[in-house]
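#onboarding

Welcome to the new folks! Below is a worked example of what a typical request in this channel looks like: someone posts a single protein sequence, and someone else replies with the predicted structure as tokens. Don't worry about understanding the tokens yet, we'll cover that in week two.

Example request:
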Amino acid sequence: MKNIFRIVAIAIISFLLVSCEKDEDQAILGDGTSPTLAGDATTLVLLKDNEANKAIKFDWANPVFQTEVALSNALEFAKTGTNFQGAKSTDITAKNLSVTYNVADFNKLMLDAGFIPGVATQIDVRMKSSVGTTTLYSNVVKITVTPYLTEFPSFYIVGDASVVGWDAATAQMLYKKDNLSTIYTYLENGKNFRFLGQQAWTGVNYSLDVTGMNAGNKYFKTWSTNLLPATPENIQFNGVSGMYKILIDADATQKTIAVSASPVATWNPANLYLVGTVNGWNSATAIPMTSLGSGKFEYTVALPAASEFKFLGQQSWGDLDWGNISADGNTGYLGPKGSNGNIKFDGTGGNYKISVDIKLGSYKIQPL
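Example response:
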């Protein structure tokens, strides 16, 4: 019996010792002092001609704990008065104690944070320091910043909801004109996609700006009801599978994506015909193209310089009608009836292979 009491006593003492050690660790870490932050400018008018010049330098003092710790630091940028709701965050190296931004890099930060080009905006900046479950914030630095407009981003669709699948190397770029990017393409119900800024995973990724999404993927502020967040990286399409128009507005005040049904739902017609200057624009004698299946067609033809043409799904001026997206031109992007113009061949005369992929929303004219 004495041995039992002895074993129980040892167990209780051991538990108390371990608990004391944990309490001691917490006491040694402590609450930490508040970090401090300072900037060397209060007003910034950023100009594209000065992109390589220094814009601003931030200096900081890290929080001090009772024992040495590894800190994770980030700067947060938000419009004054928002209490840092939806703030733009960028990581900094704690041990450096300062960071200097040139005009180009700081302007990108401001645009990514949603500040409007050409408009002076007062912003708040603070440093967030984290160690374990402890987070401390610095004082707030106020700056008035006027960013400038850069080139609008390009958007490449990728994902199993799209025609290209998850192969970043074949991601399909949307047709871009100023702040608007557009494509008529096929989307599949219940599957995911997102946009890349390049044909590679490394670099910029674009998804919905929602809680739970990776910070580097947050972009679109509003979206159509047939899209859902698929955290932490993607967008889920929940419409009926078929052909859709994807329209992105990259204006800094918008950052919207709308997906709506294409005026022409057909993506794999039984036949596709070429009509234009090559046959006197006679739809009844439109030239049959060779079907490769899954909405792909091709045809080899002698094209004189300044040729123009379109594609028909019947040998008549009917509903199945595709041409250059939006208006006359040679962009390589298909637009359906009501949203297209003639394809204007701008090469020299010779033999060319014309390839069409209705499901993807593209065409090519390649010399032989």
